[in-house]
């Protein structure tokens, strides 16, 4: 992992840093016999992100998609992707909670790229 990305991940999980919660997009993909969350910036289309992912891994399936907003005390998950024609699901909230607290999150958190 590059140093800049590592620093951003550390800062992002540092509770001493207070910033306004941001709305991000996500896709839950079926990958390697499990479901995985991919998070990315709000200004990127769900379909564009999924197309980008499928270029590297054509066998990946999109399961659900939507939006999330998290801060230190709350997590909101909901909405739908019009470009993928997929809704968010109730269980996505738990997947995103696990994603946000995961040590291997850097691989799938594309909101950190280009910041």
Ordered list of secondary-structure elements with their pairings:
Blueprint: H1 3-12, E1 23-31, E2 34-41, H2 46-56, E3 61-70, E4 75-78, E5 80-81, E6 86-87, H3 92-100
What can you see in these coordinates?
The protein has helices spanning 3-12, 46-56, 92-100; strands at residues 23-31, 34-41, 61-70, 75-78, 80-81, 86-87. The protein has 115 residues and is α+β, with helices and mostly antiparallel strands. It has one domain (21-112). The strands form two sheets. Strands 2-1-3-4 form a four-stranded antiparallel sheet, with helices on both faces. It has a two-stranded antiparallel sheet with strand order 5-6. Strand 1 (23-31) and strand 2 form a beta hairpin. The model is unreliable at 1-10 and 13-17 (pLDDT under 50).
Q: Which structural class matches the secondary elements? A: alpha+beta
State the oligomer. single chain
**What is the tally of helical segments?**
3
From the N-terminal CA to the C-terminal CA, the straight-line distance is 15 Å
Q: How many distinct folded domains?
A: 1
The general outline is: globular
**Average of pLDDT:** 81
* Beta strand %: 25-35%
Helix content: 25-40%
Rounded Rg = 14 Å
Largest sheet: 4 strands, antiparallel
Order of SSEs: HEEHEEEEH
Looking across the biggest beta sheet, what order are the strands in?
2-1-3-4
Low-confidence regions: 1-10, 13-17
Count all strands and give the number. 6
